[in-house]
Amino acid sequence: MIEARGLRKRFGDFEAVRGIDVAVRRGEAFGFLGPNGAGKSSTMRMIAAVSPVSGGELRILGRDPATEGPAIRGRLGVCPQEDTLDIELNVFDNLFIYGRYFGIPAADVRERAAELLEFVQLTEKAKVKVEELSGGMKRRLTIARSLINRPDLLLLDEPTTGLDPQARHLLWDKLFRLKQTGVTLVITTHYMDEAEQLCDRLVVMDKGVIVAEGSPLGLIQQHSTREVTELRFGVADEGESHEGHAEKVADLGERVEVLPDRLLVYSEDGDEVVAKVHERGLEPVAVLVRRSTLEDVFLHLTGRTLVD
């Protein structure tokens, strides 16, 4: 569905994407994971055939976006990071008019719009103006609009940014159901749980390059430990910083990461780490034992967190 070799994107002297290789198979959910500025959105715009390639090779659905852009775009669905709905129109007309842009007959668009409104649970809002919708409803309508042309490939750029947890989970369910019907999904996100929930495979991007590739579970197993113990010490705890405490627990795990507000001790048994911390007379004000996540993978690979 997508094949990139040595793909590059430059803006003047700045190179946002620095020679990446990507292959996306039919029917999978593929993710681009990384912080803001990693090159994810620049890559997505090239895949969407709306931003020219600066270097390397790119094929979308077997076609060259440099010469076959309209043909590619006709088979894509795009859910941009920011909602671009027509606020002067009601919910149904947002779908109907957008469908007509693709040259789909009016009767077919009406039928398809009704199906999509039911799919995203907005049937009762069909005649409501967009500006009256909640943020979660607007995102669901944007995804419905991106499906109006029955795309082979759906591109989702930060699909759940700004949504509350309930709205995010509802949206995840809709995307999972789309994948079950055979739609290929390409997702950019900086939410770790989102990538783990939705993606079959993903690449971790940082500063325009790919630093790791694999399944979420495979990346965690390869680059982290089974568990992580988070230790937070008081700011006035003997006048000592978290860096100072890190030296006292450095031998309790495979590695220790120092964050501004806590220590992360990576090991196979978090409870054992906690017990040994207390044995040494250390008294953190907060302790959490959790499983490793993709954020731990990113921290290990790049030396900084995803929210930097």
TrEMBL record:
**Domain ABC transporter, first and last residues per copy:** 2-232
Query: What keywords sit in the KW lines?
Result: Antibiotic resistance, ATP-binding, Cell membrane, Membrane, Nucleotide-binding, Translocase, Transport
Name the InterPro entries for this protein: AAA+_ATPase (IPR003593), ABC_transporter-like_ATP-bd (IPR003439), ABC_transporter-like_CS (IPR017871), ABC_transporter_ATP-binding (IPR050763), P-loop_NTPase (IPR027417)
Q: What is the lineage of its organism?
A: Bacteria, Bacillati, Actinomycetota, Actinomycetes, Propionibacteriales
Alphabetical GO CC annotations of the entry are: plasma membrane
PROSITE patterns reported for this sequence: ABC_TRANSPORTER_1, ABC_TRANSPORTER_2
**Alphabetical list of Gene3D superfamilies matching this protein:** P-loop containing nucleotide triphosphate hydrolases
The family note in this entry says: Belongs to the ABC transporter superfamily.
What is a GO molecular function of this protein?
ATP hydrolysis activity
- Superkingdom per UniProt: Bacteria
Is Translocase among this UniProt entry's keywords? yes
Species source reads Nocardioides agariphilus
State where the protein is found.
Answer: Cell membrane
Give me any GO biological process, just one.
response to antibiotic
Q: Identify its membrane topology class.
A: Peripheral membrane protein
Name under which the protein is recorded: ABC transporter ATP-binding protein
